[in-house]
Amino acid sequence: MKQFCESIWEAGEYTYAAAYGFVPNIHAYLHEDGTHDCLIVAPGGGYCMCVPQEGELVAKAFYEQGLNVFVLTYTTDITMSVPLRRQPLEDIARAVRFVRSRAKAYAPGKKIFVCGFSAGAHVCGTLAVHHDDVADKNPEYAGISCRPDGAILCYPVITTGTYTHPSSVEALIGKHPSDEELTYFSLEKNVTDRTPPCFLWQTATDDLVPVQNSYLFARALLEKGVPFAHYVFPTGFHGLSVPTEDFFRGNFGEPYTMEQVRRAVQAVKEGKGVNVSERRRTELAAQFPDTPAADDADKPALSGADKSALSGAPDEFFHTKAEEYEDVRQWVSLAILWMKKVPPSGKHPPHAPHKSC
User: Fold this and answer.
1) Exposed, middle or buried, 132 (CB in 10 Å: 0-12/13-18/19+)?
2) What DSSP assignment string belongs to 219-283?
3) How far apart are CA 241 and CA 247, in angstroms?
4) pLDDT by residue (tens digit) across 146-166?
5) Quick one: which of 76, 105, 208, 261 is 20 to 30 A from 43 by CA?
6) Which residue in 31, 39, 40, 56 sits closest to 107, CA to CA?
7) Residues near 153 by Cβ (< 8 Å), separated by ≥ 6?
8) CB–CB of 357/7 below 8 Å?
9) pTM
10) Strands (DSSP E) along 74-216, which ranges?
């Protein structure tokens, strides 16, 4: 396996006000030879972070199924101070163009998919419905399509309406968004016949993002004649990622997706936060106490899992928990079968040089 990290934005292109030195990047997991389709993974985290349990763990699951995989750490804001608006959309659009422009180096097949979780699924879904709205000013990418061949949306945030996830919407478009913003980012209202094929899955008992989100999007796809697959598993908490024994042990792989959180928390602790409210400063101080921000951010928690059972638990516990969600774990295999049926959207442009993180 070949692994590397590359920034997707060049010097001077990325101007998000609360970046604190972070630049969105991709971590690659590539096969050394052969032709392989590509998958860009966007972890969730409520638009406040990109959680590690939806990064390398997912990447390796799809790599083992023959794909070249890229984990995208897109722009988020743990301080909840600077609305993100279109920046995450710009990030994933550039990521698709970046990978597509390097077809020769990355040895992809004919297709590039995006796969997002929770708020990361909202990022991917936004690209799926708004890809025609995202121009790229860099001549290197301006003529390259950012439309993915297909989108995999895992327990997705979809709507800004009744069944929304309020804190994700607040981080994205602020506390007082306009009606236009609410409509633009309510994805079920923006599906067209240009939307690529989609694969959706969620659990009926999702305890954070109501399952109605995936139903709303599936119905919109159906009405516009967009091919899709939709799976709803009967039980399971939000954030199940790929529910293997490693998942329940907290073995998520390298926590590189937390870089921007570490930078932001450290800036707030040093009094350099951008428009950070006193209330949010207090919350962050409690969430990331006395230890250095970098150390603290490297210890992610399992969203929705029984954390108390993980401490000193016997191997049988992890095996039992994984068995409990054996049906949900099949979503990877189902997605692979679906991806094989999705037709390629077109040829890729020639190779462009690497730019390292």
Assistant:
1) exposed
2) HHHHHHT--EEEEEESS--TT-SS-SHHHHHT-----GGGHHHHHHHHHHHTT--SS--HHHHHH
3) 8
4) 999 999 999 999 999 999 999
5) 105
6) 31
7) 116, 121, 124, 125, 198, 199, 200, 201, 214, 217
8) yes
9) 0.92
10) 108-117, 150-154, 198-203
Q: Are 346 and 144 in contact (CB under 8 A)?
A: no
Residue 314, burial from CB neighbour count under 10 angstroms (0-12, 13-18, 19+): exposed
Helices and strands, number each (H, E), in the chain: 15, 8
Residue 3 · residue 68 · CB < 8 Å:
no
Please state, in angstroms and as integers, the Cα–Cα distance from residue 267 to each residue in 49, 294, 353, following that order: 15, 11, 33
Distance CA 66, CA 62 (A): 7
pLDDT digit string (tens) for 86-138?
999 999 999 999 999 998 887 677 899 999 999 999 999 999 999 999 999 99
Nearest-angstrom CA–CA distance, 273 and 263 = 10
DSSP string, 27-87: EEEE-SSS-EEEEEEE--STTT---GGGTHHHHHHHHTTT-EEEEEE----TT--S--TTH
CA distance 127 to 125: 5
Q: Collapsing DSSP states into helix, strand and coil, what is residue 320?
A: helix
Beta bridge partners of 72: 26
